[in-house]
Write a structure and sequence with these properties.
Blueprint: E1 5-8, H1 19-27, E2 30-33, E3 37-41, H2 44-48, E4 59-62, H3 65-77, E5 87-90, H4 93-98, E6 109-112, H5 117-123, E7 131-137, H6 143-150, E8 154-165, E9 178-181, H7 184-193, E10 203-207, H8 209-217, E11 224-226, H9 234-245
Parallel strand pairs: 1-2, 1-9, 4-5, 4-7, 5-6, 7-8, 9-10, 10-11
Antiparallel strand pairs: 3-8
Helix pairs in contact: 7-8
Length: 248
């Protein structure tokens, strides 16, 4: 079966040079983008019930831009003035630069890793005396608390936002040749929105081992998987599959 249409369970790329657009043009594909999951902020009233007082902490660990957005959102809703002495530890340089949206960057103590949490842990070793706050989603990598505990850091997890299933009722049914997923939550959303979904000839593509496990646990057939040594990106894995299956 030739591949003619793909739905990617993520927002539209914010660049005109997305490899998805190049793939669509090269093979004459229809590629639609539709987030199967979305983020909702925890209300300030609910956060108060957690008994976490942001100003009790001397440092914040940010693992994503979303975490930064919700940290400053909840601080504003609680009418808190974050002190200039607060230290910020970010998963990557790009995440650190995003702080400029909320603070005067050059006047703050900001540290960052290379994109891996294990590297950020190493960066933090000179700051063991700090009391760390870690803003997270309700669904987060267990590596984060495990590494912090293993290294003996004083920290508290603050659940400031949640990952929830999007409402896809306007789609009515999934008429695409390939469905592309990036998280187990996306698989959950598929069945929440389409409880009678039957795969048949539809191909399932996914990124990451946890998503692959969720696909198989749901009783679905996994046809395209990334990353691999031959296909480190999702678009490369898709192209390899399309090349093979769209031969005339």
């Amino acid at each position: 079966m030739k591949v003619k249409s793909i739905i990617v369970s993520q927002p539209d790329p914010n660049t005109a040079k997305s490899p998805y657009f190049e793939l669509a043009e090269k093979y004459g594909l229809k590629i639609d983008f539709r987030p199967f999951i979305q983020v909702e902020g925890v209300p300030a009233k609910e956060f108060r019930n957690s008994r976490i007082y942001i100003l009790d902490y001397t440092a914040v660990i940010f693992t994503s831009r979303t975490a930064i957005d919700h940290f400053f959102r909840i601080s504003q809703e609680l009418r808190l003035a974050i002190p200039d002495t607060m230290k910020y530890f970010c998963i990557s340089e790009a995440t650190a630069f995003y702080l400029q949206k909320y603070i005067v960057y050059r006047k703050r103590k900001i540290f960052y890793g290379d994109g891996r949490f294990s590297d950020l842990i190493s960066v933090m070793k000179k700051h063991k005396e700090e009391n760390f706050l870690v803003p997270l989603s309700d669904i987060h990598k267990q590596e984060i608390p495990e590494l912090l505990e293993a290294e003996g850091y004083k920290y508290t997890k603050a659940i400031l936002y949640r990952t929830v299933c999007s409402n896809l009722s306007d789609l009515k049914e999934i008429n695409y040749d390939i469905l592309v997923f990036f998280s187990p939550s996306g698989i959950k959303s598929l069945f929440q929105n389409f409880p009678n979904f039957v795969q048949n000839d539809i191909k399932i593509a996914c990124f990451g081992p946890t998503t692959a496990k969720a696909v198989r646990d749901a009783g679905l057939r996994l046809d395209i998987e990334a990353p691999t040594s031959q296909a480190p990106s999702m678009t490369m894995a898709l192209e390899q599959f399309i090349k093979k299956n769209n031969k005339t």
